[in-house]
Task: inverse folding
């Protein structure tokens, strides 16, 4: 059973994993604290993004050879995989770590199994310490590794009467500058921004993270993903050099997510129009909804959501509202499908 010192160290490891210089992305955010045999802190480390040292290795490097007999407290099960860096399980063994305490098991097919490797080598291993708190660090990564597809957040902006554009097609701007800046903040922690070809033709969006969120070193622009078979003009802004872009000539949301997961992406931010959104909702492939509602009334114009596989009230997708925040004059409502248990 974890000691008080180990629980305190896990809380510190969670803080480290959530550091501002630890970007969301293909790799999980992880923190690690090393404790001396008497339970006092030795050193600590964290992962800072793809290609950098994993948290355990970062902490071991800072220990400067003094880790023998120590306890490693880490938010995620040490990996058992050689990629850009070597397996953390082996690094811990090489350093002479005597005990490993971790919060969340690594369900990734290519990296899991580090805990068992350590046990077989004689290391005392304890799993599940502060698991719920640590899982919140990497909600989308954990979901993707367990379900084999990215976590999907559908974002839309609408008037109080549910319109996403006026009768003449104009939609700039339904929400305030403050709300639009908030969208860039949330875009910045996603792996892919997804729209349909209709949105590209109608609105010519650039689909990038701009402002302060888009200028932080180590935080790459999300992949721009355009879904559909309509021919697009070569001058469309999604084809500029501000971010990478891929066009997927399909109307099947499952195919889109399979392609993104195959590229190592774990969080898709869906900003498409009502047709694409309806296809994802109908397929049961929306995991979170972020709605910006402006205090405007239009009375006519495009709805925020088209056909979504719902014909009766009993088939409605009901949401559990997890957050309501006023941003300038607008409201941001966040909800998850009520039937989702994870």
Result:
């Amino acid at each position: 059973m974890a000691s008080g010192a180990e629980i305190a160290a896990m809380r510190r490891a969670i803080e480290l994993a959530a550091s501002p210089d630890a970007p969301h992305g293909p790799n999980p955010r992880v923190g690690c604290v090393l404790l001396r045999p008497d339970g006092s802190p030795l050193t600590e480390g964290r992962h800072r993004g793809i290609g950098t040292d994993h948290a355990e290795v970062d902490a071991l490097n800072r220990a400067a050879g003094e880790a023998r007999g120590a306890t490693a407290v880490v938010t995620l099960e040490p990996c058992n995989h050689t990629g850009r860096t070597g397996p953390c399980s082996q690094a811990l063994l090489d350093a002479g770590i005597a005990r490993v305490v971790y919060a969340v098991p690594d369900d990734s097919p290519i990296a899991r199994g580090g805990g068992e490797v350590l046990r077989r080598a004689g290391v005392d291993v304890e799993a599940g310490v502060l698991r719920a708190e640590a899982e919140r660090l990497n909600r989308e990564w954990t979901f993707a590794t367990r379900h084999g597809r990215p976590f999907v957040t559908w974002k839309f902006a609408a008037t109080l009467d549910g319109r996403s554009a006026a009768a003449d097609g104009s939609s700039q701007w339904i929400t305030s500058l403050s709300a639009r800046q908030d969208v860039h903040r949330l875009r910045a922690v996603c792996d892919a921004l997804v729209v349909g070809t209709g949105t590209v033709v109608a609105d010519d969006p650039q689909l990038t993270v701009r402002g302060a969120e888009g200028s932080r070193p180590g935080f790459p622009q999300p992949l721009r993903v355009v879904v559909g078979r309509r021919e697009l003009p070569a001058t469309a802004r999604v084809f500029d050099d501000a971010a990478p872009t891929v066009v997927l000539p399909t109307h099947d949301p499952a195919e889109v997510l399979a392609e993104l997961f195959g590229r190592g992406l774990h969080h898709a931010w869906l900003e498409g129009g009502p047709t694409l959104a309806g296809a994802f909702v109908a397929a049961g492939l929306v995991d979170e909804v972020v709605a910006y509602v402006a205090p405007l009334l239009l009375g006519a114009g495009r709805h925020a959501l088209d056909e979504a596989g719902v014909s009766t009230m009993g088939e409605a997708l009901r949401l559990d509202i997890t957050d309501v925040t006023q941003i300038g004059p607008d409201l941001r409502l966040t909800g998850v499908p009520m039937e989702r248990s994870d």
About this structure: Residues 117 and 188 are 36 Å apart (CA to CA).
